[in-house]
Structure formats: structure tokens, C-alpha cells
Amino acid sequence: MSRITPVPLSELPDATRKSLAYAEEIMGFTPNDVLTMAHWPELLGAMEQLVAVIYKPGALDPVLKRLIATITSGAAGCRYCQAHTAHGAAKMAGGDAEKIAAVWEYQTSDLFSDAERAALDLALAAGTQPNAATDEHFRALEQHFSRQQIMEIMGVISLFGFLNRWNDTLATELEDKPLEFASETYSSDVWEAGRHARS
Predict the structure, then answer these.
(1) Which of 92, 94, 118, 157 is disulfide-compatible with 140, CB 3.0–4.6 A?
(2) Are 186 and 86 in contact (CB under 8 A)?
């Protein structure tokens, strides 16, 4: 159970309902972290704007954005965000199920290109503590991605730096859809609900 109780749907002010509707549109379900952030409407509004900028169609493939978020979240230990982003890669961005299931084998799997490996290597390094990103990670990125694409990669990694800390610290309870997706997609050695399971 979340360490801060989410705001009940019946108590959301109209402005917050708009933020929730946006989140439901891009995720396909009502996210508990949005309902927790609703205790601080200004923060929720700022987060909505940040998510909109980072996830809007841009120079970087939308499935890769979500896989970067999955790897960053997994490296940081946030199972809530790991489940959310894997679910989003499949259900919202239309990613290939086999590739999403193999994301933790990206370094050796034939399903991933050298460009994707470079992006996911940085995501893994940046998600660990202490941060393990190096100049070599960026040299590898520059072989495959434009400056704008690299900025988008960094935007995703940084967004989930915040969301991982928020959700893992609060033990935000996982919703049915991402919980079911992650449980069916990943083996227990790479994913378990942990503190985000229903109590």
C-alpha cells in the first residue's frame, strides 16, 4: 500500500481531473502515482507538461523511449515504473512483444540494433547508483543518434530519475494492467512487484 494515500477520484478538483484524463489517455489506465501527486496540484501540472514534452512524437522512436525508461527504472530498482514503461511500450507505443520481453538481454539479443544497445547501455548506467555513465557512452550514442535524439534519450532518463524516486519511496501500488503485463512478460529474476504489490 502506498505510504501516502492517493486522492480518491471523487475528491479530485476539475483541473486535476484534466491531468488524470491526460495520464489515462497516454497510459490506458488510472495511474496511482498521478492520484498521489494530486495532493500537490502544481507539481502534478508541472509533471504533466514535462511528460507531454518528453513523450510527444519527436526524433526518437516511441518504443525505444519506453524501453529506455524500462531499463532506467529497472536499474534504479523501481518496479512500479518498470512495469508501467514495459506496458506502455507494448500497449501504447505498439512495440513488439518478443522484443519487450527480451529487453534485459538487449546486449546479446539479435532483436536489438547497435543503436538501441548504445541507448540502453546509457539508460542502464544512468539508472544505477552511483551513476555509472561515462564519456564512452556518449561517444557510442553519437555514432547512431542526432543531437536532438540524444536530448530525447536524456529527457527520458531524467524524467524517470524523478518518477523512480517518487514511486519507489512511496511504495506506490501497481495497478492491474501493468502488474498483469509485467508478471506475464518477465521472469522473476528480472521483475517482481515487491513493495508495489497490493498489501
Answers:
(1) 118
(2) yes
Write the pLDDT tens digit of every residue in 69-102: 999 999 999 999 999 999 999 998 999 999 999 9
pLDDT, tens digit (0-9, with 9 covering 90-100), for 92-136? 899 999 999 999 999 999 999 999 999 999 999 999 999 999 999
Q: Residue by residue, what is the 3-state secondary structure of the chain?
A: CCCCCCCCHHHCCHHHHHHHHHHHHHHCCCCHHHHHHCCCHHHHHHHHHHHHHHHCCCCCCHHHHHHHHHHHHHHHCCHHHHHHHHHHHHHCCCCCHHHHHCHHHCCCCCCCCHHHHHHHHHHHHHHCCCCCCCHHHHHHHHCCCCHHHHHHHHHHHHHHHHHHHHHHHHCCCCCHHHHHHHHHHCCCCCCCCHHHCCC
CA dihedral (183, 154, 77, 29) positive or negative: negative
pLDDT at 190: 78
| Integer Cα distance of 23 and 136 in angstroms | 35
Report the candidate in 85, 15, 7, 21 with the shortest Cα–Cα distance to residue 45.
15
For the question of whether the overall pTM of this predicted structure is more than 0.85, the answer is yes
Asked if omega into 130 is within 30° of 0 (cis), the reply is yes
Site of grid cell 512511496: 170
